[in-house]
Amino acid sequence: MLKVLMGCFYLLVLVVFAFVMVKFISQRMKSTFKPRKSNVGYAAEINPKTAAPQLLNQILLMLPGENNEVLSRLSVLAEDGNQAEIDVLLICPTGIYLFNSINESGYVTGGEKDRQWYVLNEDGNKKAFKNPLDENRYNMQALLRRYPEIKEEWVFDYVVFSNRCGISDVHLETTSPVLNRKMLFETLRGQIAEQSVILTPERIQYLYNRLKLYTAGESTASLSLQRKADKPFYKGGAAKIHEVKVPDLTRFSPEDQCLKNKLIAFAKEQSQREQTTAAEVLDRETIEKLVNMKPESRIELETVQGMDKKRCENYGDLIISIIKQHDDETSNKRQ
């Protein structure tokens, strides 16, 4: 009798053990990746909707460099009429870096040519989202179209997932960086160290001033200007950076209309000397862009759409002189 009872007891133990093992294995098959708990503590002032870009900002601000600038949540009008949303953008001496920040939790699958990628959550639910590499290409083209002064070879893009995502099953055919947030600093620092310097401090500041006009208003004040105030980059003090205003080709103040007339007169006079048309010297659209942007240096002049190399070399100094003289006259009248 005792042997029968012992046998039943052992049989019951084996059944329980088998049930537990089956349950465990089925759970593992349901979700092959269990995201670890994030040890990132969100500050009370961080909005959950914008937490990922803000965390990226903190990482990018730690990169070495005196003239780096970081912008968040840019909205640029694309060719199809929709808004291209850029989460975070870094401008530094080696180029312009776009970041697509994805704050999900789970196991990510997808390929470069797939229209959609998927994230498998811990509870087994699968969530689809648009291919982030396609989004980066769309955003990059919108940026290049809106700012023709930016060259395509200056721009690099990253897809950054939260540390709670597994990305080992993401299939890439190119070297487009797709990584976790914890890997970003070292990866980006290594890339920047290998790249050649292509942007001067003045051009970085100019691009920052232009691009910040299209942010959601949450970008920090210019870091390079703060650094220059503490430790001047140039001898004789911090450089004066010309702030540009939003281009508006539909309205002109009396002062701007006066400058426009001066540039039109200059184009006519110059065309008579060269026996060509005024539009060959400066066309109407270029004149309006000059009036709106009022470049104060050759670097700023080169970024004005319509001011090609030939125009900058032939008329650049004269145009800058006309704009400076006009600004001085306007300032004196106001005094």
From TrEMBL:
One of its GO terms (molecular function) is nucleic acid binding. Pfam families: HRDC, NERD. Residues 48-166 form the NERD domain. Gene3D superfamilies: HRDC domain (1.10.150.80). SUPFAM superfamilies: HRDC-like (SSF47819). Residues 253-333 form the HRDC domain. InterPro entries: HRDC-like_sf, HRDC_dom, HRDC_dom_sf, NERD. This is NERD domain-containing protein. It comes from Eubacterium maltosivorans.
